[in-house]
Amino acid sequence: MSDKTSKFPLIIGVVFILLAAVGAWWAISQAQNNGEVMVAKSNISAYSFVSDAELEALSVPLSSITGDDLTKKEFEDMNSKAVISNPVLSGQRIDKRYVLSAENASFAAVLPDERIVAANSSVTGAAIGTIQAGDVVDVTVDGGALSSPFSKVLCIATEPSGCSAILPAGVDINADDSGDSGSSSSGDQSVLLLLAVPTDEASAISGQSVTLALNPFCRVDNNGYFFSPRAAAAGEAFVCEPPDNRDASDNPDNLDGDGPAPTDGTGATGTTGTEGGS
Question: How far apart are CA 257 and CA 261, in angstroms?
Fold first, then answer.
């Protein structure tokens, strides 16, 4: 056997060792230059409770992580449980400005002078696909007996189980005769709604069949106050004028009054009640 032949296995071994070393160095380098942020496994509706079942950690370059991204460590510090107050698409990073950690955080949008009511509508009347949880709407009881502007959609679903994501543990909703998951008299599928409405209008809306009209000019911050998501263009009739004491500028936790005020979900929610529809 020649010297070249006898040295060949040694050369191969050295090459493998070098490749392994390079691979280890690359892996360590990547780990040092990467961080983990939380992203949605699937679409998440506003005010939904989330855990490891709905979120997953994604390794990304440290340079791409902003102060608004929810990191894996921050999520673990919340015991891997939280409420997302804004809709999130599958694969989208979780913005911690919309993350609430209190037990009642799914109802953080409800002000002290509001109540949570269940009502029903149709796919057409609820503008399914356009109106979503977190939107501001005008609510009209069928027949036009009452119109309630500046109401908040907490949940919109074609089945009662569709609202389970926003309900605290142990709370359930069953459809009543007028709000089951079948079809209405017009043949349009019935839709279950959970709404936050002014206290003095709650009893008139609770359990009723209603129609929703989207208010595109207003949004709701983490404490339940209304704000304009953008400024009006020249000559545009752009109006977000909520009732007294419900504008974001009235919120003591949002001093600039121009957008979402991150909280732990405990501020300005007051004592809320749930009426009817169950």
Answer: 8
Alpha helices in the chain (DSSP H): 3-33, 72-77, 199-205
Digit-by-digit pLDDT tens for the chain (278 residues) are 555 556 666 677 666 777 777 777 666 655 568 899 999 999 998 999 988 999 999 999 988 999 999 999 999 998 888 899 889 999 999 999 889 877 778 888 898 889 999 999 988 888 877 898 999 999 999 877 677 888 999 998 888 778 888 876 666 655 444 444 444 444 567 889 999 999 999 998 999 999 999 988 888 888 888 888 777 667 766 678 887 778 887 776 654 444 444 443 333 333 333 333 33
Question: Residues near 259 by Cβ (< 8 Å), separated by ≥ 6?
Answer: 221, 227, 229, 248
Residues near 159 by beta carbon (within 8 Å), at least 6 away in sequence: 175, 181, 192
Element (H, E) at 120: strand 114-122
The encoded tokens of residue 23 equal: 């691979």
Q: Which domains does the chain have, with CATH numbers?
A: 33-101 (3.90.1210.10), 106-275 (no CATH)
* 207 touches 173 (CB < 8 A): no
